[in-house]
Specification:
356 residues, seven-stranded mixed β-sheet, 12 helices, globular
Length: 356
């Protein structure tokens, strides 16, 4: 769905970002100074670290040093970021939004984004950006699950393995329709089980082991690392970034059935210029900066993710480790148009199947 390293622990959505949010009320479109040396970024979690050495930490510092423009950062789940943009439509506070599919498409469909093609966007694959220029991927990424390596000798191989009673109240995934990675659980199940009915039937059975809802995927990694959970959902960038501070955390991709290949799909962080952004010129400079060659090389070296630009071929240790991690994993292509169109009905079906 939510980057980095040998890095750091992602900042949970409920941390300092929420305290910061209260301080941003003066940044709205009404009365905002378009020439102020600042921008406000609403983002899904996963790219910033508590230790201050994550991808966003480096990017924000570098951008301010280069331009003098300060970045005000507000973190939340992917769906929550879009919901907030919609609520603030009449008094826009954010300049840039960074979120995961299908929520970036949702923001676009709601008319919350303004077309702007950042410098370097020509090097981003067609499937990783909007044809209309309203958003572009800045960090490529893949959906995954995580497990506690200390408590489990090996990762669960298939979805069915997750039904084992040893995972009762020791398994949790973030909420579909709210969190990007939580929605990704639904998307992978729809693909692996071959449609809505069998996917919902399985997720209904899995609910017996599920701890319950979580609005942010980033909150689950520390619980898994400590052994409070044995299995949770995540994404490669965020969880690889955690490896240094959470050595008990392992990444896996469950197969649809025994003997099958593990599967996943691309879940990039995508950025867009917010419509009626209070500091549009600054936001455009920031989007250009995110896709610049030096920053794109930091995606793997610092962030533990995958560069969005095709012409960037990193050879740093993280890039090599990530390539090994993905070796042998089948990457499928979701029908994002279908998901964007039918997301509400899929989430409703999930709620019914799981009694959530």
């Amino acid at each position: 769905m939510s980057a980095h390293r040998p890095l750091a622990q992602p900042l949970a959505a409920c941390c300092g970002a929420l305290a910061l949010a209260a301080a941003l009320t003066a940044c709205g479109a009404s009365g905002a100074d378009p020439n102020a040396k600042e921008i406000t970024v609403y983002s899904a979690d996963g790219l910033k670290s508590e230790q201050g050495d994550g991808f966003y930490d480096q990017v924000f510092k570098g951008f301010e040093k280069k331009t003098g423009i300060k970045v005000n950062y507000v973190e939340s789940g992917s769906g929550a970021a879009v919901q907030r943009l919609a609520r603030e439509r009449a008094n826009t506070k954010a300049d840039v939004v960074v979120t995961l599919p299908p929520f970036i498409q949702q923001a676009d469909g709601k008319g919350l984004l303004q077309a702007y093609r950042p410098k370097g966007a020509d090097q981003v694959a067609a499937g990783d950006k909007s044809p209309a220029g309203t958003w572009t991927s800045i960090v490529n990424n893949y959906f995954c699950f995580i497990y506690n390596k200390k408590e489990l000798a090996k990762a669960p191989a298939t979805w069915n393995d997750l039904l084992d009673r040893r995972f009762e109240q020791k398994l949790q995934y973030s909420t579909p329709g709210v969190a990007g990675d939580g929605t990704a659980v639904l998307i992978k199940a729809l693909h692996d089980f071959g449609g809505r009915e069998p996917a919902m039937k399985f997720l209904g059975r899995l609910q017996a082991n599920n701890v319950g809802p979580s609005s942010s995927t980033g909150q689950l990694a520390p619980k898994t690392a400590k052994g409070e959970l044995l299995v949770a959902n995540g994404d490669v960038q965020m969880n690889y970034a955690n490896m240094k501070s959470m050595p008990n955390q392992g990444i896996f991709f469950p197969a649809a059935k025994a003997g099958g290949r593990p599967t996943t799909f691309a879940l990039p962080y995508a950025a867009g210029l917010v419509k009626d952004a209070p500091h549009r010129a600054n936001a455009e400079r920031f989007l250009d900066y995110l896709l610049s060659e030096p920053v794109q090389r930091q995606v793997s070296a610092v962030g533990g993710g995958f560069a969005a630009r095709k012409d960037i071929k990193p050879t740093d240790p993280n890039a090599k480790a990530l390539a090994r991690l993905m070796d042998g994993v089948e990457v499928f292509q979701p029908d994002w148009n279908d998901i964007d169109k039918n997301l509400d009905s899929y989430v409703t079906a999930w709620k019914t199947a799981t009694n959530s």
